[in-house]
Amino acid sequence: MNLQAMTVIWAPRMLSILRIVAALVFMVHGTQKILGFPASSMNPAMFSLPWIAGVLELVGGALLVIGLFSRPVAFILSGEMAVAYFLAHAPKSFFPALNGGDAAILFCFVFLYIAVAGPGPLSLDAQRRRGTDAY
């Protein structure tokens, strides 16, 4: 099998794997803020910005893991990470390695990519799309 054929086969699958892994890692930030697991000193007040971020991370992350409403959810989460970077990280330093915002930047652009490229074939969105194409 040549490289081009392998790319055609594996690129969409790797997009799904990227979506799932990024969403699982992202979702842990929400479980930490909302559910207190893993244990953290953070316990945001209900309806505060960190609490809202935690709800977005928990619910949005779960939706991305299963690949449901992936494009709009990824777009919203990309925006959340952009806002988080500029509100919480950028004021500390210009350099992401110093301000702790490198993960926020990566999540922002991974989610923006998913919003544009779609969830990949291993998703409920793809399953729903296949179901409607059958008729």
Automatic annotation (TrEMBL):
Lipid bilayer topology: Multi-pass membrane protein
Keywords, A to Z, come to: Cell membrane, Membrane, Transmembrane, Transmembrane helix
State its location(s).
Cell membrane
> Which InterPro entries does its entry note?
DoxX (IPR032808), DoxX-like_oxidoreductase (IPR051907)
The record's similarity note reads: Belongs to the DoxX family.
What PANTHER family does the record point to? BLL4328 PROTEIN, OXIDOREDUCTASE CATD-RELATED
Q: What is this protein called?
A: Putative oxidoreductase
